[in-house]
Amino acid sequence: MGVKGVNPSHGAIVPPTEQKLSDEMDVTKKKYLRGGEANLEVLKDKKLKGQLAVREALHLKTAQAAANAEKYLLPSEEGYLEPEGLEKTWRIKQDSIAPAVDIVSARNQYDIVVPDLGPYRLDFTPSGRYMMVGGHKGHLAIVDMKQMSLIKEFQVRETVRDVVFLHDETMFAAAQKKYPYIYNRDGTELHCLKEHGAALRLRYLEQHRLLASINEYGQLHYQDVTDGRMIGSYRTGFGRTDVMQVNRHNALLALGHSGGKVTMWSPTSSSAVIEMLCHKGPISAIAFHPTNRDLMATSGKEKKVKLWDMRNLKGPLQTLPGQAETLDFSQKGLLARGTGSFLQVLRDSSGTQKYEKYMTHPLVKGYQIEKVLFRPYEDVLCIGHSMGWSSILIPGSGNPNFDTWVANPFETPKQRREREVHSLLDKLPPETIMFDPTKIGTVKPPRKEKPTMEEKEAELEAALEVAKDIVPKKKTKGRSKPSKMKKKKQEIIANAKRPFLEQQMKEDEQMARKKQKGMEQVELPTSLQRFARKKVII
After folding, report:
1. Going by fewer Cβ within 10 Å, which terminus of the chain is more open, N or C?
2. Is the confidence at residue 177, as pLDDT, over 90?
3. Cα–Cα distance list, 406 to 167, 171, 207, 401 (Å)
4. How far is it, in rounded angstroms, from Cα 211 to Cα 123?
């Protein structure tokens, strides 16, 4: 005899399995509602109330349809390593995982050894279908990860510091010895971006179609890849850095500097939007959580990894011991850190943003990790190191379900052309890059108008009338003599006048400063103009 749950809304007895499915559907439905139901009872206008009721019903129907679609079209669930008894997940090796997975997943365990051309930098397309590798000695290659086949491989015969895909696998950029270059998938050089200089790191802002770079002199450049315009070129003022990462939520660029500071930049601002001191030593790596928009991880040379909540920058959420030369978050929130020839993966198992050791993987002694990168929509972690690149399995790291409208690993050439046109039409202007993008579309609060002279005088007179009507409290022992009562009356009136007089003094000081600035801007004689301070317009 099984236990049955009761649905209070209908008074019917529901089996436990159906009750569980119903509860799961309610949770999913709430996710798509994006807020509570509107309270229409407070409205007095019947016409407006009826229109909003129709819209509210349509909104509920849409959320229910989306929940049903997720139930039947996205049945896959992520899985993690589950230890038994006293077993620890971080003790499980890759050799133990390989026999327990399917043949297709087992193919993702490999090592590519190219000892003379490393260390290697990596990048994936948003769908995870294609991987770009770039060796420091000039080796560039594009790999199809589904077919496990090499699409193109060529040698540029000079230093390559970083590689990044642009809008899809047909174009990519490489930061070479003197300038960044743009190539197509056949290895043909399309553009040479001389304005960027000797770039150390490259990042691509997909929604805005901007290619960003930081060069060896600490200059930050933004260039629109659709029409070639240079959107912004700024001096950071913090010296050379090779630590750069993009926040996918608001498209701000984060730079890590040698003084332990992390700065965030927008192409429309010549100064940093945010400047925060994260470590006592130089910053070695930065990573942003792909789904939790407020979580950031930083690593410093003082052998500490810190997790930050971007809503509260007063202190870190968690501080972990250990060095990390490279950091990366997976789609499901796993954090990989690598240093030397040792790799560690951390997991927030409790859901309270407290990361613990989940898996470890030692490379061959002598290998130096250059970059770690999770592959989208797969439980795979790729490692670029001094002797080539490697791939290992990390259960639970990738999103098991993909949206073909966002990233389609099985995209056809026709679908790719359609997506390119739509993404170009939906390109966001650089002005939309800000720390809090939720402000876009909101109404700016009305500006307070300064009161006129007549209004100020009327307000002062009203305050004086109120002050004159105040009767001081009578006291004994000669403290209520007529002379003292008169003095108290004068003090009450003076206190009523004080705020108005202070405000008037502030306004007079501001006017005096403006006049002084105006006098300073008087045109100098021709012989002295070369000594005047010039304004730099960027």
Report:
1. N
2. yes
3. 12, 19, 12, 11
4. 14
Cβ(241)–Cβ(256) below 8 Å: yes
Residues 6 or more apart whose CB falls under 8 angstroms from that of 72 comprise none
Q: How far apart are CA 342 and CA 332, in angstroms?
A: 22
Token representation of residue 475: 């006291």
- Residue 359 CA to its chain's centroid (Å): 26
Write out the two tokens for 442: 């909101």
User: What is the structure's pLDDT at 4?
Assistant: 38
449 vs 392: CA distance, rounded Å: 63
- CA distance linking residue 360 with residue 88, whole number of Å: 11
Q: How many whole angstroms separate alpha carbon 233 and alpha carbon 442?
A: 29
Q: At 55, list the tokens.
A: 């819209």
**Residue from 180, 175, 185 nearest 125 by CA:** 185
**β-sheet bridge partners, residue 392:** 381
Q: Are 220 and 268 in contact (CB under 8 A)?
A: no
Q: Are 207 and 427 in contact (CB under 8 A)?
A: yes
pTM: 0.74
Instruction: Give the residue ranges of DSSP H helices in 14-169.
Output: 16-33, 46-73, 94-97, 103-106
DSSP 114: -
